[in-house]
Amino acid sequence: MSPPPNQSPDPERSVARADGSVLPSISNAAARPSSPPIVLSIAGYDPSAGAGVLADLKTFAALGVYGMASITALTIQSTLGVRKVMGLDPGTVTETLECLAEDVCFDAIKVGMLGTEVVAASVIAWLEGQKGVPVVLDPVMKSSSGKDLLDSKGCEILRRAGLARADWITPNFAELAALTGEQVPTKREETEKIAQELHRMAADRGNPNLKIVVTGGHAKTPDDLLLVDGTFRWFPGEWVETRSTHGTGCTFSSALAAQIAWGDEAWDAVANAKSYVTGALRHAYPVGEGNGPLNHSWEKT
Ligand code: PLP
């Protein structure tokens, strides 16, 4: 299959297909100045649309990129919490990803809830073929309401293959602790030390350029830590008094992927994603009886 007529092949970003052939790749952002970047979300389905792929697509639309979504798991949930999680068959997930990748090239990929070990393994194996496409991995493990969103063997896959393939990873404090086997950090110095440990784990898996954003959104001082090229930078956050916090992590990681797709450098990408999320929290309106969604289209209202 050759690239569409308005796009030119980019040898740096060729795509390996299941049958062993290589699809010449194109950069949407570079080759088609009139089209926005294309960003893919690989994540779970939340019917209340506060988290998962629906939140990601709203974020992508708000930030002006074209969003696509491949679902890894269905959940039954409302703003009151997650009742049930059903992982999709990994063959269906891989087939969806292959179908999309035969048609378009992604300018960034965000990976969120993976649900099960088998889906996690299939997704990461497929990502290995997406050479040169920036991958933002949000290592989703549990919902805020306490439900497991990834089985224990799936967490192990994130720790090995996930850390080896991701360009960015966006753990919150609890996820940072789970990935490294450390205690949940309570002080800045502890967070920095554990982030460094996570970076070492990625380097040991052949990925020394992993960029880490530890998201502190749940803390009273909601600052985020970026570790890039051996340098730490803290991004001061603003505490917003609201119950509308469902899907904050999903929204931040998809905003980060969108900013990266637009070509932001690391520090700008984090600053812009954080400022978008803060606005979406500040302008949120109540939905449902529990923890409602952010207002993803706050910049239009
Ligand atoms: N449901 C899905 C599909 C998710 O992807 C996530 C988080 O990534 C959640 C629920 C949990 O969101 P929260 O912890 O904000 O409740």
Individual helix count: 9
Helix content: 25-40%
CATH class: Alpha Beta
SSE string: EEHEHEEHEHEHEHHEEEHH
Structural class: alpha/beta
Shape, per Cα inertia axes: globular
User: Strand order within the widest sheet?
Assistant: 5-4-3-6-7-8-9-10-11
The CATH superfamily is known as Ribokinase
Major sheet size, sense and barrel closure: 9 strands, mixed
The name of the CATH topology is UDP-N-acetylmuramoyl-L-alanine:D-glutamate ligase
Estimate the mean pLDDT confidence.
91
Total strands: 11
Which keywords apply here?
single chain; 9 helices; alpha/beta; disordered N terminus; 301 residues; 37% helix; UDP-N-acetylmuramoyl-L-alanine:D-glutamate ligase; two-stranded antiparallel sheet; binds pyridoxal-5'-phosphate; 11 strands
